[in-house]
Structures are given as structure tokens and as C-alpha cells.
Amino acid sequence: MKPITLKQIAEQLNISVTTVSKALKDYPDVSKKTKAMVKELAKTLNYRPNTFAVNLRTKESKTIGLIIPVIVHHFFANVIKGIVAQAEKKGYLVIILQSNESYELEKKQIDLLMSQRVDGILISLANGSARFDHLNEVINQGKPLVMFDKIAKIVNCSKVIIDDRKAAYTATQYLIDIGCKRIAHFRGPLLPQNSIDRFLGYKKALTDNGLPYDPSLVYICECGDMSFEEGKMNAKKLLEDHDDVDGIFINTDLVAIGALNEFNNQGIKIPEDISIVGFSNWFMSSVISPTLTTIDQPGYLMGKTAFKQLFKEIKAHKKNKSIIPKIITLETVLVKRESTKKSTNTILEI
Amino acid sequence: MKPITLKQIAEQLNISVTTVSKALKDYPDVSKKTKAMVKELAKTLNYRPNTFAVNLRTKESKTIGLIIPVIVHHFFANVIKGIVAQAEKKGYLVIILQSNESYELEKKQIDLLMSQRVDGILISLANGSARFDHLNEVINQGKPLVMFDKIAKIVNCSKVIIDDRKAAYTATQYLIDIGCKRIAHFRGPLLPQNSIDRFLGYKKALTDNGLPYDPSLVYICECGDMSFEEGKMNAKKLLEDHDDVDGIFINTDLVAIGALNEFNNQGIKIPEDISIVGFSNWFMSSVISPTLTTIDQPGYLMGKTAFKQLFKEIKAHKKNKSIIPKIITLETVLVKRESTKKSTNTILEI
DNA sequence: GATTTTAACGAAAACGTTTTCGATTTGTGA
DNA sequence: TCACAAATCGAAAACGTTTTCGTTAAAATC
Fold first, then answer.
1. What CATH topology corresponds to B6-49?
2. Nearest CA to CA, how far is B115 from chain A (Å)?
């Protein structure tokens, strides 16, 4: 019933614990014979090293912590999948925690992970996080930390992101290229950097193309559980406020799909009357009608990349090498589908 | 830089490590003065007990393992959320692994978790799992194990499930009650118990109501990444094969939404021509048009309940009490929406 | 004042592993 | 034969806690 220990193996074979340990780890100063002996007995007894003891000795747990604002979200679920898969490859386990977009919780969870002495931490910030002492604390303790997606520029650690501003610019530029003159934007909440950057990308594309920026064309939504409904509501409001809008760039697909639904119901033709571009390439976007043009946000790859970077830093940390924070920007692509009309401007289609 | 230890505190205060340890844990044989002294210094030094050492001493890690077939799935994501939230409340951390519906991976992961010496394991089976030695091994080692949702009846451990058969029966019975005479079923894959049970519930409702069971009305789909497409395809086939079907019970919402989409495109009126009931109550079901009648499958509650049961068993195991496996069946409810027509049979509506 | 009780503390073992360093044995070359 | 190197092993310390049990001093009891 009790787990097998090195001591038990040693006693059975009449050798020392030391030799057993070395044999199992293929130390050069153990003869082939004893190695074989030890390994065989270990196998038949189904010996498993006591991780607790190993951790204590080696001062590492082969475990990392992951704090994520929401789990039930296709993008983050994909990130989790990417992290877990990559971690497993490298022999690391992942402890997962959900901050629920709350700074207080996030802080507590950082504390939990530090107490647990994980080898490193991956985090995507809660919307509520405007202070970062808890993260600086992690860094000061010399614990590897990598942020992804929802980051704080001010925190001095590695980050894996997409260029939200550029992607939004691309999306808006595409709307302009296909002939849209009056382009609205459904933006995300005011706080997280992502929705700010997407908004800025939208704005810059307008001005770069000589189009006026009109604040009344920008609608805000929380992008929480009610995203779909928010999309519908904003679409409704937009139709009431303006009759000349011919394109919308929307912060996230679910909102876009809500808007699309409202337009469909009201008989507004997409893309003939209004062209729509979403963000994130949720699988439903390729499936609804009309299919949604959107920016592909590589969740799985982001998770994978974030872990890879963290892994490097963990290794460096073990060797007492200092780590130079690195910012990795993943490519996004515009996925053109039915919700945007074809360009009428042939010159642009050379 | 190096973490503070009990020893350091002891030396600073000129007392023994023992007393420091006891003071921090409020042992009665330490004076109030020393307790205050110790606690204060511990706080200012930001002392955190070394989990590795604590684990080694106490033989528990306050950590559980979770193996799940897919993370990127609204139901499972909800389950994860429920588990993580409840675990955190009780001071437990969750290590998450994804089996990818593969028996081989699942086996390896069980092994990993056993090596890690987690205090207990939560698992939802991979579709590919038809052998259960790896799970029996866990049980034999006396490690608490709770299965949820995708379970194996044959394994002697606690389980948290819904009554798939009953829920399917309810769904089908509802279709019958509102007047459907020719009811089709889009079922899931042949293996997992869930889709078998849902199929059986469908069948039993038919025969209990004197309706013939017609195998040609049963369509199979894998319910994987292509669910939506499968729904469309099956809908198409159904329209080709039969012109008299007036109701469909569908294994899962995403497939149902695919079917709905196809029917919409082909001008088939839902619910006038065909009534549809889905399964799981995905949030999109309340949002598409027409909204989908479905069985609500309580993912968050399932996660929460599964952890609670595991927690009980972990506590029992610590006290060397034997654990009697318990099967907890969560209630499901039929959520009536637009995709099913109102009953014309007033007698049934008393 | 002698004895017992209580309060407060500490020594030491234990958890199971890893690793350093020294000891022993065997083999090698002169 | 001697010196030295190589091969093989083990003793012991260390990781940082927890907990048992004993010790001491002070307080209480008679």
C-alpha cells in the first residue's frame, strides 16, 4: 500500500540508497550489472520517485501556474490547450486559475502560485488590473513570468501578443479598400490595452485615408457574457442614429455575430448595405450566414509560444543567467468572407 | 533572494525552529508573546512555508489532477471553471491535462498525475477509452478518483453524471406531446455511453408512445470539430431520404444549429414543418433564430459537484476511512424555445 | 517546604531524495 | 613489486518542514 522508496530497493538488493539512486539516473560510476539489477527491481516494484522529496532537493517542481481571466471563451480555451500541450511535451504540468477579470483575485492567485513555488507563471491580465505590484513582486523574486494577450506594457517581462493596432488597421483599411466611406466601430471596454489598440488602429486607418473620425460612430460594449446581445443592441442603435454607415469594424466576433443577426432581422443586407469585419475568427464565424470576415487571432499558437518563452526563462533562471525580456508578436491575418462586399475599385485589385 | 526559512526566523529571534513552526500554527504550548514576535517577523520577512518540504512531511500536496477530453468545448470549459472555483475555495489547486479523446494519452496522463502524487483525480473519459486498467490502478493505490460526464459504469468509483437516457426521453416525449409523429434522431458516435444512452432514451420514448422505431431515421455524427457541418449534412440527407419527418431530437446543440441553418437555407420552416430539440443548452442556442429548444446540461454545477465529492473522499482517505462510491445524478431540464411548435393538443396542456 | 501541575520551549527524528566526497577494490604500467 | 589510475561503491549532509517527546522553570497544591 505504501509507496516504494529507494531505501526498500536498496535493502532488497543489499546495496546503498546512493547506488540505487545513481543507478536509476544512469550515473557513470555504477556498474552495468548493478544498474540492470536496480532498474529491473524498480520496474517490478513499480517504483515512482517521491516528487515531494525530489522537489525539495532540486528546488523545482516542474510545474507552472496559469492565470487566465475566463476559461469559458473560445480564444482562451485555445490558449490553454496550446499551453498544456506544449508543457506536457517538456515534462511540465500546468496549474490553472481563473481571475474572473478581478484584480483582487488575480493578486491572491499570484500569491497562491508563489507559495506553491511553481517554476514559472503565465498570465493574461484581468480587465480590472490597473496596478501591477503583484507582478513586479514576482519578477523581483526572480521567478520567470510571461504575459500573453492581455498585457501591461509597463511590466518588465516577456510578452506574447498580437499587434492589435496593426490588425485593426488592416481590417479598417480593407473596409476602405472595398469602398466604404462611413465606417463605424464597435469597441471593447475602455480598460484593456487590446480594445484601446484596436480602436487606435481603426482611427489611424481612417485618418491615413483622409476619412474624418466621427466619435458618434464608435459604440462601446463590455464583451462579457452578453456580447451577442450587445452586438444586437449596438446594431439597433446604429441604425437609429445613422443611415449612412456602410461598414463596421467590430472588436470581437461574438458581438459581430449579434450585430449581423440584428441586421438580418431588420432586412439590412450584408454586405450590400453594410460590410462587417469582426475580430478573432471564432469557429462560428465561418458557419453563420453570411459568413463573417474577421481577423484571425492565433490562440493555440499564442499558448504554445508563451510556454516556450517561459520554458527558456526557466532554464536560464536555473543556470543563474539573467533573462532579457522579449516581446513576441504573432502574425494575424485578415480572413475574407461574405460579410464584406467585393471591391468595386479594380485599381486596388491589381 | 533566497526564500526565508523557519531557521532564519529562529536565529533572528534566538529561539528554536520548533517553536517558530509551532507559533505560526498556533500551537497551545507557545506563549502569546513569542507567537506575536514570530508572526510579526514572519510577516515583515514575507515568510512563505516551503511547500515542497510541507508536502514531503505531510504527504499531501493540496493539488488535484483533472483529465478532460477537450478543453475547447463550452460544456467542458464550464466544468473546468466549476472545478477550479470550488477547489480554490477549499485551498486546492488543479492540474489540468487534455486527453484529446485518446486512450493512450489518458493512460500516460494518469501515470503523470500518480507520479506527481496529486491528492485525487477527476476524469472525464476519452471516447477512445474502452479499457480501464489505468483507472483501476488508481483505485487500487487508494487514490481518490471521481469520474464525471463521460464515465465507465464498470469502474468502481464515484461518478457525477446526468441521466442522459431520461433527458433524451423527456426531449423526445416533448416532441411527441406537441404532435410529432415521425421523429428522427441525430445521434453521437457509437462509443461513449452518453450518446448510447441518449439514443436509448429516444427509442424508448417512441415505443412507449406506440410509435414505430425506424433505424433509417437515425443519423450518426462524430460531434467533433466539424459538428456544425455534420448537422448541415445530416439535415440535407434527411430531406433527401424522408419527406414526412416532423421532429428531430439531436445529440448536441452545435449539430442542431448546423441542421437549423440548413433548414433555414432550404426554406424548411422551423418549427412549422419540423420541430427540433437539441442537447446541452449552449449559449448560442438562445441566440440564433429561431431559438433552439434544448436540454440544459449543467456544466458548472457538474464541475463543482465532482470536486466536492472528490474533496470528501480525500478527507476520508486521510482518516483511513474507506470510501463508498457514490453516483450523483444532476437534474436536467428541458428548455422550451422557438424551434418546437406549441402543442395543438390542449388536453396535454392542462 | 516538598510535591505536583502547568506552561513554555527545544532536541531530534522523520519524510525520500540528490550529490559531494571519501573509501575501497581492481587493474595498469614501470 | 610499487605507484598510480580507474572503477565502483557508500556515508553523510542537505533540502525545510512537522511532530513527538523530554526538559526545565515557574506556579499551584498540600
1. 434 Repressor (Amino-terminal Domain) (1.10.260)
2. 6
Per-residue pLDDT tens over the stretch A228-241:
999 999 999 999 99
Please give the residue that has the higher pLDDT: either B157 or B128: B157
Residue among A53, A95, A228 minimizing CB distance to B95: A95
Question: What is the DSSP code (8-state) at residue A69?
Answer: S
- Average pLDDT for chain A: 94
Taking an 8 Å cut-off on Cβ atoms, the answer to whether B116 and A93 are in contact is: yes
pLDDT at B346: 43
pTM for the structure as a whole:
0.93
Q: Residue-wise over B149-187: b if at least 16 C-beta within 10 A, else e?
A: bbbbeebebbbbbbebbbbbbbbbbbbbebebebbbbbb
Shortest CA to C1' contact from B34: nucleotide: C8
Reference B325, options B135, B58, B40; nearest CA is B135
Chain B stretch 238-297, residues whose beta carbon is closer than 8 A to a beta carbon of chain A: 258, 261, 264-265, 283-284, 287-289
A343: confidence class by pLDDT, cuts 50, 70, 90? low
| Domain range summary for chain B, segments of one domain joined by + | 6-49, 62-156+299-331, 164-297+335-349
Nearest Cβ partner for B51 among A1, A73, A116 = A116
* Separation in Å, CA of A6 to nearest CA in chain B: 15
CATH tag, A61-156+299-331 = 3.40.50.2300
Extract the C-alpha cell encoding B295. 436540454
CA distance A209 to chain B (A): 37
Categorize the per-residue pLDDT at B171 as very low, low, confident or very high, splitting at 50, 70 and 90.
Answer: very high
Residue A339 scores a pLDDT above 80: yes
Pick B115's closest partner by Cβ from A51, A78, A142. Answer: A51
In DSSP notation, B149-202 reads SS--TTS-SEEEEE-HHHHHHHHHHHHHHTT--SEEEEE--SSSHHHHHHHHHH
CA A48 to mean position of chain CA atoms: 34
Q: Which nucleotides of C are covered by protein (CB under 7 A)?
A: 7-12, 14-22
Residue B270 pLDDT grade (very low, low, confident, very high; cuts 50, 70, 90): very high
Chain D, protein-covered positions (CB within 7 A): 7-12, 14-22
